[in-house]
Each structure stands twice: as structure tokens, then as C-alpha cells.
Amino acid sequence: MTVGSTIHDIGYRHYDGRRLGRGYVLRSLYVHNLRACHGFGRPARAKVMPSILALIMLIPAVVDVGVVAFTKEPGALMRYSSYAVTLQVIIAIFLAAQSPVLASRELRFHVVPLYFSRPVGPLDFVLAKFAALVTSLFALMAVPVTVLYVGGLIAKVPGSADQLLRYLGALVGCVVFALVLAGIGLTVAAFTPRRGFGVAAVIAVYLLPTTFVLIVQGIAEVRTQFTLQGWMGLFAPFNLVDIVQVRLLGAQRSAVGVPPGIAGGLIALALCTAIVAGSIAVLYSRFRKAGLS
Asked: What's the domain of life for this entry (predicted)?
């Protein structure tokens, strides 16, 4: 018995256009993750949390500028370098909510090998996610600080040159905050594929060390052990970066205590660098392993 067969031309053709290469893939991954971090390209409910948190971060700066403009009291203007430390809870919530979005979705749905089937490697994949979260965190902190600075200029706060230096120093601080927090958040979220667990884990990693450090610093202050109080700040993320701001960028202290001298700032900066480099290395290993499975 002979079975007839038909060959259909379904229109497959070779691609003859310009190949955009690895750089284009890396930029596309960065933009995709940046959009995902703020809920773009996702359901409307995904946009609610980042939008609300960004608004909450902005409100104190706007109100403070209004108070300065109305009262003509330049001393009422918040210090630029203290803004992130003052609103660290909001930043931590943003980090906990968005880190799993970037770090755990591909792991949860086992689609990492599909990414690596294209001209993109684990390091590119990790760097795109890391850069996207760093950008989002930096914008979350830098925009209100910029509002404070511009508002101060409009309100004619004295010492414009000095204000500019403080503003630029605060922006550098925002960069360090974003790098350290992004590294911690992504690393924790990458090992908790379920989003709910990831959110809880990131919050716990922020809350537990911060609470422990505050308790020890309080005890050290009561016992007048101020050196111990300062060095304990190295073990809480926001205190750690504040040490860098105070000892290396000339900012006023926002945390409970900071270690003495330039040496304290250099040690804090070295620890920040180790956190960033270590987190990238751990994320590289995690996604490389997932890509081979």
C-alpha cells in the first residue's frame, strides 16, 4: 500500500541581514530587566509597588523644599547624604520586592538555557541584571536628592559651591548604596526561586543584621565603648556605606556610629568592593549551573 505525501513550502529563508552581536544582546537584556524592575511589559499590578515606593521616596524631599521656601530657613533642608539612610526602610522594601523579579523568574521556570543558546554568556546575563537593579536603585535615591538640591538653589540656600560639592558627594554615595544593595538583593533572591520566599529572605538579610548592629551599638554607647560602636557599623548594609560617605566623601554622620579615621573609610570601601565582586561571582556560578542543567 503506497501512502501519498506532499511537500509544503512554508517560507523559511536564511537571515541575510546585519548581525547585531553580543553588545546588542547585552543592551537588550539590560533594557528588558530595567523595564521589568518597574513593571513595564507586565500586568498593571506589577507597576503598583515600584510606583508607590518611588512616590514615597520623593514626598519628603518635595515637602522639605516647600518648608525651606516658605520659612526661608536654609537649615531646614535635609542633608543630601543622609536621605538614603533616613529612608532606608523604603529602599529595603523596593529591593526585596524587585530582586526576585530579576533574579528568580528564569530559575523558577527553567528557561536560563534558552538565553545561553544565543551569543550571550552567564557573565553577560548577570551583568545585565545587576546593572538594571543598580540603575533602578540609583534613580530611586538620586532623584529625591536632586529635588533637594534644585529646590535649595531655587530657595537661594547660601553657599552654592559648597552645596554643589555636597550634592555630588551624595550622588557618589547613591552609587555605592545601589551597588552594594543590588549585589546583596540579587544574590539572596537567586537562591530562593519562589518569589514570596525571595522577598522574605531579602528583608530578613536587611533586617536581622541591622537590628543586631543597633542593639550592640546601643549597649556599646551605654558602656562608653565608642570605638566598638563605630566598627559594628561595618556589619549593617546602610551603615557600611554611610561610613564610606563620612570618612571618604566628607559627609556628616547619619548612622549611630562610624569607625575612626580614614582607615575606617578604606576598610568600609574594601568591604563594599568585596560584596559587589563576591555577589557577581556567586550569581555567575548560580546562573552558569542553571544554564547547564
From this structure: Bacteria
Does residue 125 contact residue 168 with C-beta atoms inside 8 Å? no
3 state DSSP class of 271? helix
Nine cell digits for residue 128: 545585565
Residue type, 216: V
Place of cell 533616613: 86
Would you say the pTM of this structure is higher than 0.85? yes
C-alpha cell at 227: 570605638
Of 189, 206, 178, the residue nearest 272 (C-alpha): 178
Q: Indicate the domain borders of the chain.
A: 21-292
Cα–Cα distance for residue pair 151/64, rounded to 1 Å? 9
The answer to whether the beta carbons of residues 257 and 225 sit under 8 Å apart is: no
Q: How crowded is residue 118: how many other Cβ atoms within 10 Å of its Cβ?
A: 11
What is residue 244's predicted lDDT score, i.e. its pLDDT? 96
